[in-house]
Amino acid sequence: MKILILGDIVGRPGRNILRENLEDLKKSYDVDLIIANGENAAGGNGITRKVADELFEMGISLLTTGNHVWDQKEILQFIDEEPRILRPANYLEGTPGRGSAIIEVGEKKVGVINLQGTTFMPCNRNPFFVAEEEIKKLKKETNIIIVDFHAEATSEKIAMGYFLDGKVSCVFGTHTHVQTADEKILPQGTAYITDVGMTGPYESVLGIDKDLIIKRFTSSVPVRFELAKGPAQINAIVVEIEENTGKAISIERINKISSQ
Ligand SMILES: [Fe+2]
Ligand SMILES: [Fe+2]
């Protein structure tokens, strides 16, 4: 089975480049399932019903999120009834929504777990222990398990990769919006990358207009962030998984830049 995983989709530029390229990517990599991090899909902040539906219509089966999940207040109205949008599983007890899901892909099932890091991020439950709990639940139904670890610190992400090596098919990082070049298969058969990167404005600072961010770093007066215009990029990985064992066969990184 081949799974295409898209790094944080940022606003309209991210959605537009996907609309133009996703079908081709799906065909050329012979992909069975597409999942994406959608925490910045609505104008760079959070996700709305309309934007989520737009992404599902493009062929994305499931959206993970992270610290920006609640940026658009309307998500609280529908996340409980929308199993295709996850929020980190290690959020505190009583948080709306869910942190894991099972997706049916033909005859097979794929489990997906969303987690958030603890370093330089708000305090939640320990993602390592929550990962173990969630894996235990999902393993009753499938050996194919994918983990989005939405985290800042590279050390925490690499540690999670090794911690889950052999227990899941893939651990991928999101949140930094910068793709790392360390994709590999870990010793026990788990595909790993520290960060998939960002699907959004190419000439930008993490998706935001670069001049505004430069102003932010060179002025004591606050600036209002706006998404950058111009060319866009798709950052993604394609992971191939042996269906019966759930072990990863390969992981390939995609970094595609639009012409304008
Ligand atoms: Fe993000
Ligand atoms: Fe984030």
Provide an overview of this structure:
The chain is 24% helix and 27% strand. With 260 residues, it is an alpha/beta fold. The strands form two sheets. Strands 1, 2, 3, 4, 11, 12 and 13 form a seven-stranded mixed sheet that branches. It has a six-stranded mixed sheet with strand order 5-6-7-8-10-9, with helices on one face. The structure holds fe (ii) ion (2 copies).
Largest sheet: 7 strands, mixed
Helix content: 10-25%
Terminus-to-terminus distance: 33 Å
Low-confidence stretches: none
How confident is the prediction overall: mean pLDDT?
97
The set of bound ligands, ions and cofactors reads: fe (ii) ion
Output the structural class.
alpha/beta
DSSP helical segment count: 6
Rg over C-alpha atoms, rounded to the nearest angstrom: 17 Å
Count of strand segments: 13
How would you spell out the order of helices and strands?
EEHEHEHEEHEHEEEEHEE
| Proportion of residues in β-strands | 25-35%
Shape: globular
Give a quick set of tags describing it.
about 260 residues, alpha/beta, 13 strands, about 25% helix, about 25% strand, binds fe (ii) ion
Summarize the structure.
The chain is α/β, with parallel strands linked by helices. It contains 6 helices and 13 strands.
